[in-house]
Design a protein that fits this description.
With about 500 residues, the chain is α/β, with parallel strands linked by helices. Helices cover about 40% and strands about 15% of the residues. It is built from 18 helices and 17 strands. It holds the Pfam family YjeF_N.
Length: about 500
Amino acid sequence: MYLVNRQEMKEIDARAIDQWRFPSLILMENAARSITEALFETYEDLMDRRIIVLCGPGNNGGDGLAVARMLHLKGAKVAVYIVNESSDQKTSIDHGVNREIIDHLSIRVFDIHREGQLRLLKANLNHCDLLIDALFGVGLDRPLSALVTEIIDIANERDLPVVAIDCPSGLNADNGQVEGAVLECTDTLALTLPKVGFYAGRGPDVCGRVQVLDIGIPSEVADSLAVKTSLLTAADAKVKKDKRPADCYKHQFGHVGIIAGSVGMSGAAVLTAQAALRTGAGLVSVLADKRIFHAVSTVMPEAMVRPVQWPSPSALDWLLARANVLCLGPGLGLDEAKEETLRYLLDHGDQPLVLDADGLTLLARLGLDGLKEASRELILTPHPGEFKRLCGESHDPKVSRLEAARAFAEKYRVTLVLKGFQTVVAAADGRAAVNSINSPALATAGAGDVLAGMITALIGQGLSPFEAATTAVALHGQCGRNCADIYGEDSTLAGDLIQEIAKELRRGK
């Protein structure tokens, strides 16, 4: 699913109206109908609630007026407050049409032009059971006025559910930033497509539950715009590859090479290898420190485990001659021998290389100057702390995770998986994706090792690094949700995630 900024959404609307010939009033009516249906589905007792709709002077306010009309005609108790500070009381054309209609109905409509008119709104909010925010939507491109700020402050002080139409008022739909006040919402009903700001800055805190509603704009309209950002959903957890033929053999499904594990961290190598195998890798070879060889090989009879005394160019050459994709770093350690190992791999071979965990710390030590000239595709999977080390002094905490990841991937010509809540995947060509499939169950030791193994396995089976990363991140998130249901968010182990991979892959066929 596309994830759009304000300008992209404006262009999609314009193309739908001007090129696809959808009348704007029809789209507004479709939006109001979808919103009304969503409200009844979300609040089973909607008919018993006292509802206030806050409307601005633009098309978002027009959506709110149409929703108020539909709720009223169904018998709901609705009052409308229209906030318009312009001296001429000018509104958008479609807003004006819906105002004319609603003025002929027995709906209480109040106009607010100045702060002195807020007394009635304050009083009625005390007896309100649901507030619908139709002030600005994604159209806000300026700081809030003192009047609107006071209205938002008054609403936030009340303990009542708030539903935003398209975007919470005060939230920048491009970057999730807030200049002054922002309406804290229980639900956000996004029209046509989700907005970038929902998943950046303050967005996750103020949007509440996000639901995307269809208002009748064909998907071809967004396709024609070539949007480069997407939102990962459950549909993206399905692995996009052909069914295995009856006469297949293991070498057709990738030979994954893993360089991982050290004394006290042998489990990292095991988890990475097991995850790769469960994600469909035909063969997995592990180069493991000789001191942990027995610990790894005993519990991994399906993998080929080779004991190594680091540094060992000969062992790396052996792996480079066989594997078609590599993963370095989980539990590897940070001594000088491991630095030499990474340096050797960066200078030899052309297989895609996934760098995770200690591999990223080693890369930060070596410096990033050589990444742009690397002869292979590199996939980096940092958590926020590792990403900060990679960026060094250039790390700007004010920049959203999405834009920081995109800028890094473009600058260094890598695929970046910036892990954490709403993991971001960014490609060197500017494409990016934000994961919406999250679970606290993933906050467990070894979960990152599992993800690294999954990404590596999918690359080995022919997926591009970006496609492999986005699919693995979505699949990993879905496995986390499944484990939360089975074991609980507090009790999930990384090994539990691996067992769920097989179940999800079967569901996706």
